[in-house]
Structure formats: C-alpha cells, structure tokens
Write a structure and sequence with these properties.
nucleotide-binding, 2 domains, transport, Rossmann fold, binds adenosine-5'-triphosphate, alpha/beta, ABC_transporter-like_ATP-bd
C-alpha cells in the first residue's frame, strides 16, 4: 500500500516561484502522468518526490508520513538520458543497488548473498529482455536496451514509487512503443506507484490511470516571478476507452490555457 499526498506545495528558486499551491492525493498503485509545457516545472515536481529538492512551502507525505528528506530506496528513478554506469557490466549495473543497500562501505556482497542477488538480477534482466546481455557493457547496447537496463536497475530495490522523467524521449517510435508495453506490464505485475513526466499527451494517456497537467495560469507583467505553475487539469483515465476520450478533452484544455 503506497499513498502519496502533496499538501499545498510550492517551490521557489531564489525568489522565482516555479510551482504554486500543488495539492494532490494519489491512491495506491496509481500510474500518474504529468504533462505541461516546457519550463512548467514537471521535473521540479519529480525532484520534490525524489527528495532531490525540498518544498519551499507545504509538505509531501508518503503513506501519511513526511517524505524522507534524502533520496532513498523506496523511490526509484529513470531519466531520459541513460543513467547506467558505463564501466560496469549489465549484470553489475543491476546488482549494484542491492550491494549498496547491504554493504554500503565496500559495495560488495559475498558468498550466498551475492549469488541470491545475482539470481534476482538475472530474473529481472530476463524480464526486461536483456537476459542474454548480462556480461555486456552499456556501450554495447542500443538506446532502448540501455533504458531497459535503467528500469531493471531501478526495480532491483523494489521501490514503492517509480519516477520516470521523460524516459522514452530519446528513443525511436518503434522502440518507444515496445517500452510502453514493458512499463505498463511491469506496473501491472508490481504493487508500485508510477509517476511519469512526459511532453507527450498520447504517451501520458496510453499509459497512465490519471493525468495531471501543470501550467502557469496567472502572470503579472509587473512581477513575472510572482506566480508558479498549478494543476490546471486532473483527469482519471483508468480504462483504455476512457483514456482515449479524455485525451481529446485534455488537448482542448491545454490549448485553452496555452
Ligand atoms: N536548480 C534550479 N535553480 C534555479 N531554477 C531552476 C532550477 N531547476 C529548475 N529551475 C527553473 O524552474 C523552471 C521549471 O524547470 P523544470 O525543469 O522543472 O521544468 P520542466 O517542465 O521539466 O521543463 P522541460 O519540459 O523543458 O524539461 C525553469 O524555469 C527552470 O529554469
């Protein structure tokens, strides 16, 4: 069970308000898509959830408790650009998260424990379609394969929340589509919440159970930094049919505020 709550959260950088009064309750096992124009604060929203940034006002709760102030293993993340370690094998890229958790000083596991973590990493690599690439290095993988590896790397620590920041933005359309299937299946198989930032409304609506759009709706020409982005639409889209019909509605809403 994982619930997430944003309570009147604002974020400012040096007096410039980026996000303003964001309140949101996410039910267990939600797949939230976050859309909005460039610069609206989508990545900032994600960084707050990752605890890479702290709210200037308001608070964020996970399961009713204040979010841990530092990034921790209950929240995994996959970025657009490949966040894998180039000098480590594919297998070691995946086992690393567990090694750090169990042996933070040496980063090395031994004996039976090592065998168990490697077996689990291999199962995960098989699951994301990289079973035969375990001994390769990232430079020997295509872009899509590197993103599959990044996903396996994030999942090995069994996060409650998986954060995806434009994870498919650098991929070709065919690879992107196969990644959509994979991520949706992994979300269905695992009891985790996903929060995905994307520029692409179609992507948001084909994957998510709920889509929020954030944007600046107020602007003061005397004080351009006074207002930040707010949630301008919040759309439940649990079934595919609803998702398709609500996508058109969201496009109209976003065009209206643009
Ligand atoms: N660390 C920071 N210090 C100062 N300003 C920042 C910082 N991080 C983000 N910003 C500013 O906050 C605003 C929102 O940035 P953010 O990256 O969250 O937007 P975004 O919606 O993810 O944009 P894009 O879609 O282009 O990636 C931008 O104006 C950006 O310059």
């Amino acid at each position: 069970m994982t619930t997430i709550a944003f309570k009147s959260v604002s974020k400012e950088y040096g007096g410039v308000r980026v996000l303003e009064d964001i309140s949101l309750e996410l039910a267990d096992h939600e797949f939230l898509g976050v859309v909005g124009p460039s610069g609206a604060g989508k990545s900032t929203f994600l960084r707050l959830l990752l605890s890479q940034e702290q709210p200037t006002h308001g608070k964020i709760l996970i399961d009713g408790q204040p979010i841990a102030p530092e990034p921790s293993q209950d929240r995994g993340v996959v970025f657009q650009r490949y966040s894998v370690f180039p000098h480590l094998s594919v297998l070691r890229n995946v086992t690393l998260g567990r090694e750090w958790a169990k042996a933070p000083l040496t980063g090395r596991l031994r004996g039976q424990e090592r065998g168990e973590v490697e077996a689990e990493a291999m199962r995960l690599l098989e699951r994301v379609g990289l079973g035969s690439s375990a001994d390769k290095f990232p430079h020997q993988l295509s872009g899509g394969m590197q993103q599959r590896l990044a996903i396996a790397q994030a999942l090995i620590v069994r996060p409650k929340v998986l954060l995806l920041d434009e994870p498919f933005g650098a991929l070709d359309p065919h690879t992107r589509k196969s990644m959509h299937h994979l991520v949706r299946e992994l979300w269905e198989e695992n009891q985790m919440t996903i929060v995905m930032v994307t520029h692409d409304l179609s992507e948001a609506f084909s994957l998510s159970t709920r889509v929020i759009a954030i944007d600046k709706i107020r602007y003061d020409p005397q004080d351009p930094t006074a207002y930040g982005s707010r949630i301008v639409s919040d759309i439940e889209a649990k079934s595919k049919i609803v998702r398709e019909s609500r996508k058109a509605e969201a496009v109209r809403m976003l065009e209206a505020v643009a």
